[in-house]
Design goal:
alpha/beta; TIM Barrel; 9 strands
């Protein structure tokens, strides 16, 4: 491996607790504005070539592509199914012309069995996987695709409304399970479609299961309602030889054994706002690859020197023996400072080469 060229074997080595040439860089998402500022020209969602150029130039070994629903059925005012939503799901909503009617944090769609049946599931299930095929001739040697999916829990509660979802999880579990099944089957169908492509190397489930104080719902509810679908997610990964990665914010201690039981190989991002990544390394670092943790607040408000120093500390304590991939504490949003983001990348190339220096800090 050449540490300035993409090579997904670098990530695999970290997942297997081996030392590659350099600690791998990982992100589930980097905002297109950051990509554009990094490259010096605008990057848009449809420009797959520019996205490949960014991920390669920044030092990553893969391109993340979304498959499945990342928003509730593509429900936005301008989406293809907006008219169906207006006519069916918002039939009793006098505020349908209000922009907040489309904001899932302000309004939910499914409250009754009728809502569940009337929701345009067939249209929501028409997933666009075209990027997975467009990217094939654009990938440099050694570079792979990571399929982002999941959101089974998040999309379900967004569609039902969190309070309604939480109440029904206790009072009407069958209703909740039917909604979750609708969402999960769409997500799993999308994953199955792309899992066999030879350049897809991993599946990354992104689904926030925890608050800063612990699981959002009782673990018993998650085990009964959500985790069986992630067991199937893991089975798809195993049947196609994909590495199974998982993202959740929050304090995950009460769910660690559950996640390991699903077959995940890596956990992201070890939320720096509420978890001590060194403790995670100590307690489960031999069973799990750890990803991320460079504070997003620091990427926004810190200095390049501060970012570099934190990155060096993470490399020093987490990198030896493999089992760590460097990245942000969530994703790289548009409000991150480009010079801070660059400082994180540069620190990896300067201090993340194996064998790691005996003292980085």
């Amino acid at each position: 491996m050449l540490d300035n060229e993409p090579d997904f074997r670098r990530v695999i080595a970290a997942l297997e607790h081996e030392e590659p040439d350099r600690v791998p860089l990982v992100e589930a998402a980097v905002d297109y504005e950051i990509m554009g500022r990094f490259l010096g020209h605008p990057v848009v969602d449809s420009d797959i070539a520019a996205q490949v150029n960014f991920w390669k130039a920044a030092g990553y070994d893969y391109v993340p592509l979304t498959v499945g629903m990342m928003s509730p059925g593509g429900v936005t005012k301008d989406s293809q199914i907006s008219k169906t939503i207006q006519n069916v799901v918002l039939r009793d909503a006098p505020e349908r012309e209000n922009a907040n009617a489309w904001n899932l944090e302000q309004r939910s769609f499914i409250h009754t069995e009728r809502d569940l049946e009337d929701f345009p599931w067939a249209e929501a299930a028409r997933l666009d996987t075209s990027k997975f095929y467009q990217i094939a001739p654009l990938l440099p040697p050694g570079m792979k695709v990571v399929a982002l999916s999941g959101k089974i829990f998040t999309l379900s509660w967004m569609l039902m409304g969190f309070e309604n979802f939480a109440i029904n999880s206790v009072t009407n579990q069958a209703f909740v399970q039917r909604l979750v099944e609708k969402v999960a089957r769409i997500q799993l169908a999308g994953l199955r479609e792309v899992a066999g492509l030879p350049y897809v190397a991993a599946a990354w489930a992104v689904d926030d299961l925890c608050f800063g104080s612990g699981p959002i719902l009782r673990p018993t509810v998650l085990r009964k309602t959500i985790f069986p679908w992630y067991e199937e997610f893991g089975a798809i990964c195993r049947s196609h030889g994909l590495h199974f990665l998982f993202h959740t914010d929050g304090v995950v201690w009460d769910l660690i054994d559950d996640l390991l039981g699903l077959g995940i190989r890596a956990l992201h991002p070890i939320d720096p706002t509420c978890m001590d990544i060194d403790e995670v390394k100590l307690r489960v670092g031999q069973r799990l690859c750890i990803m991320g943790n460079i504070s997003n607040e620091l990427l926004q408000n810190g200095t390049p020197k501060e970012v570099a120093e934190l990155t060096k500390r993470r490399l020093h304590t987490l990198g030896p023996g493999g089992g760590y991939c460097l990245g942000s504490g969530n994703s790289v949003p548009a409000w991150a400072r480009l010079d801070n983001y660059r400082a994180m990348l540069a620190a990896d190339f300067a201090y993340g080469r194996y064998p790691l220096p005996a003292a980085l800090c």
